[in-house]
From TrEMBL:
Annotated TM spans: none
Protein localization: Cytoplasm; Lysosome
Pfam families for this protein: LAMTOR5
Protein name: Late endosomal/lysosomal adaptor and MAPK and MTOR activator 5
Keywords: Cytoplasm, Lysosome
Organism of origin: Vanessa tameamea (Kamehameha butterfly)
Homology family: Belongs to the LAMTOR5 family.
MF terms (GO), sorted A to Z: guanyl-nucleotide exchange factor activity
Predominant cellular place of this UniProt entry's protein: cytoplasm
GO terms under cellular component: lysosome; Ragulator complex
GO BP terms: cellular response to amino acid stimulus; negative regulation of apoptotic process; positive regulation of TORC1 signaling
InterPro entries with a match to the protein in the record: LAMTOR5
């Protein structure tokens, strides 16, 4: 599974304007991190996703978008895995 995860992370990192990628399990354990994504933020990213899911619990998990003047962080949960993609604004 680790090779498959590395392949997915590399594919995400090759996307234009992507500066970082992080994947974590449901307990906040970082499974993969590349670029500007910090391993230490895995627990916080999972917690943000979990809180967003509580807004409408009967729907699929929402995508959380954190935005600054120059960067965007997109957080999405799929089952027990949560991913975050860090992008530079174009």
């Amino acid at each position: 599974m680790e090779k498959e995860l590395d392949k997915v992370v590399e594919e995400i990192m090759s996307t234009p304007n992507v500066s970082g990628c992080l994947v974590a399990d449901h307990q906040g354990l970082c499974l993969a991190s590349k670029g500007t994504a910090h391993v230490d933020s895995a627990g916080l990213i999972v917690a943000l996703s979990e809180q967003a899911c509580k807004i409408q619990p009967n729907f699929k998990p929402p995508t959380v978008c954190l935005e600054t003047d120059t960067k965007i962080c997109l957080i999405q949960r799929h089952g027990t895995i949560t991913g975050a993609v860090y992008k530079q604004k174009a």
